[in-house]
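INFO batch 0412 | record 1 of 1 | parsing
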Amino acid sequence: MAQITRHIGLSLGADVDWPLCYEQILERLDLAIPWQGDTLRFSCDRLTIEPFDLRQPVRYDVVIDRLTHWFHLSREWIKKAVILDGVYVFNNPWSVQSMEKQTTYCAMMRLGLPVPDTWLIPAKSYEDKPDLQVTLERYARFFDLGEIGRRLGYPSFMKPYDGGGWVGVSRIGDEEQLREAYETSGRFVMHLQKGVEPHDLFVRGIGLGPQVRFVRYDPSAPLHDRYCLDRGFLGDEDIAVLEDTVLTINAFFGWDFNSCEALRQDRTWYPIDFANPCPDSQSTSLHYHFPWLLAAKLRWSLFCAATRRPMRLNLDWTPWLELAAAEMPWRERLRAYGDLARRRFQKDEFEAFCREHLGHLDQVVHDYFGSEDARRAVRLKVESLYPEHEWDSFTELFWERIQDWRRLESPARPEAAETPSRP
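INFO prediction complete | emitting tokens
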């Protein structure tokens, strides 16, 4: 029986806390998994940025990517590693590079998801290029922005067609606000999307492989309070619909790790923002939900590394489009999409692997997040974001919320209380 090491790489930018927690929990797990006659162990290190020979072999089995949506040299290294070396990466780099919000809206409309009505609006201003003026003179058409607003109705939301992080997003209440938002939109090509108001729930579904967690979300709150602490706010059918939706989106675009925002109005869930393949991962935003993320990320990366999960180079949309064309009730079709997504993510095999080889992971994660190592990771992230006079108060706030998670979601205490002790 040979000792074989599977190598996991972390492709990082400004991340501070979760990589440290990931590394330390992996060390505590001390895995030695019997696998096809051998014993698997796991190592983890951080990718560096440097010149590379395209034919140089890569030793990683899995890369968790948090950088290449904006840092191009690392993106090209990962694409080379996938093509030439068979590396599995979170997320498909070609999909991340090309599937902006415009494409994702169109694709999910094609599948029949209730994406709110959306218009694409030309940029207000342009970077000067040699052929720009003649192109605009020949082909650009005057349009009545106010008429588009009236056709959509108010409220609506104006946002960059390929944006993220709430940059450039405006809530539009009337034509005056619409024209003001467009006048200040600069070179962004903009979406104008019908608002789903009133709505009674705003939820973010965080998907990691076949795992999904739903969090009530409040975009109007300060950043550290946007991920709410509520539990039990969704019924079984809401959970089923949202899980089918999140897994469908993620599997369709080849995203292992993505978040989907959805609003509920009159018992219908409207997905409004779901091209987020580098979602919030920090204790300073996720706090209470942060330990779940670490456990989910470990499970999926270990499964992919151990099984040498092959990267799907071709997204292969045909099965989805065939289901979209089939005659069946909407809920049945969405369930079929979800089942296809679960097969793409090998849900059954993943769960069997976790039961057999990672049975102690939840307890290790629970114990770790009561340790000084975990508290120090949170503190380091706080120090990277907040002024010095707020370091103690915010460290305590986030740490106490994590302790609420340990109290309420401990694998050893299923009888725990239903609500966190702190706001």
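INFO post-check: The longest helix spans residues 391-409.
INFO record closed
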